[in-house]
Amino acid sequence: MAARPRTTRKTHSLPEHLYYDARYGTYRIKLINGKYKSLGADRDTAVAITREYNLVARPQIGITVESLLYGDPMLSQPFAVHVPKLLERIIREEQPSDDFMKTMQNDAQRAIAFFAEIPGSQINLKHITDYINQWHGDASPNVQNRKISWLQKLFSYAVDEGLMPDNLAAKKKKRRLEPKKRQRLKLEWYRQIHAAAPLWLQTAMDLSLQTTHARLEISRIKYKIAKPGSRSCGCMWFNEPKMTPAGLVYGTLYIHRQKVKQKEASHVAIPIGQALKNIIDRSRDRLISDYVVHRLPTKCSNPLSKKVKHISQLTPDYISRGFSKVRDEVGCCNHLTLEQRPTFHEIRALAAHLFSEMGIDPQSRMAHTDAKSTKIYTQDHVDWVHVPFAEIKAG
Predict the structure, then answer these.
(1) Which of these, 63, 69, 30, lies nearest to 46 by C-alpha position?
(2) According to CATH, where is 1.10.443.10 located in the chain?
(3) Which of 100, 120, 165, 286 could tie 79 with a disulfide, CB 3.0–4.6 Å?
(4) Which runs of E-coded beta strand occur in 208-280?
(5) For the CA atoms of the chain, what is the radius of gyration?
(6) Alpha-carbon torsion angle 260, 371, 202, 249, nearest 10
(7) Interior/surface letters 83-99, b for 16+ CB within 10 angstroms, e for the rest
């Protein structure tokens, strides 16, 4: 019987598809195209190269550390592979506003690019820091903190689906915010700007002051709605005014605040007293429009913005720009830098301050979710927060 060939170190326990060629004293690897390639005479180098090649080119035989630790091959896939489906779930379950959805879509593209080669099981705090530095290194602390919150949201869904063992973004320390540079809007500045503003801007300012709501909600208020409903802002009028201890009430202004639209407090019902009625009546002009804040554009050839539903409706940005333009023309805030000058949004804070001085809690009126208030049940299964009748005397 022939003697059994002796096994040497050169041929012992070689990875699959690696062979030792005794004729030349070198190692050869069989590639996936069927050809062979020499890897030289050093055994350790040839073994390392073959294992790495098999891992990439022959994943069915490549054994990864992740597969040994976690078992599920999905955990060894780059995290970028899972981002699109995670985003779909976030949008489906949270139903964000159009603007916020676009922001998340942009952030998702950044995440796909950054985590293109990093499995979710290997993401650590250093990766999160590098992500923020790469995409938002020059941004303000407020923006960087928002992007950390985005990763927290994204990773929380990944953990829920078993794609990550832990949400390390939740452990990332956020930056300390700098003191707010923008100055509060003083009542005397409000009056100066209001006096110089066109009618449509005066109407927007007055509505914001009386309701405490921001430009988006103000731009959506209609003269009349058939019934209160989610995602709508408008007036429902009584057939006859009702006398209350605080004065005559002519109807109810229903406002759905988009920023907190998934919360109960986002649906606010405000009594229409004499002050609000005067603002609405004064806004009417020769232009027929469903919207209380309206203006016919000077260039009708421009395409209609996606943020409006009628040519006479104003976008929130247009309201903000109009306010800032008149503010600077009046010059009441010219002693401040541009970053410090109050914007239209500061009317909301001014209104809250004035209501507080009157002894009225502004939280429920502002659609803050922690407000204590009385709810009324209406059509379409929507809970509306009915706020007390109150008016600001700004004139």
Answers:
(1) 30
(2) 187-386
(3) 120
(4) 234-244, 247-256, 267-272
(5) 32
(6) 120
(7) beebbeebeeeeebeee
Query: Greatest CA span in the chain, whole angstroms?
Result: 117
0.85 exceeded by pTM: no
Encoding tokens for residue 262?
A: 């998934």
CATH code for the domain defined by 79-171: 1.10.150
Phi, psi dihedrals of residue 314, rounded to the nearest 5° = -100, 145
Residue found under tokens 């809250």: 352
Task: Check: CB of residue 364 under 8 Å from CB of residue 265.
Answer: yes
> Cα(165)–Cα(122) distance, rounded to whole angstroms?
9
pLDDT of residue 264: 44
3-state secondary structure of 111: helix
Report pLDDT digits (tens) over 135-192. 999 998 989 999 999 999 999 999 999 888 889 999 999 988 766 678 999 999 999 9
Provide CATH code, domain 187-386: 1.10.443.10
* Tokens standing for residue 361: 């809690």
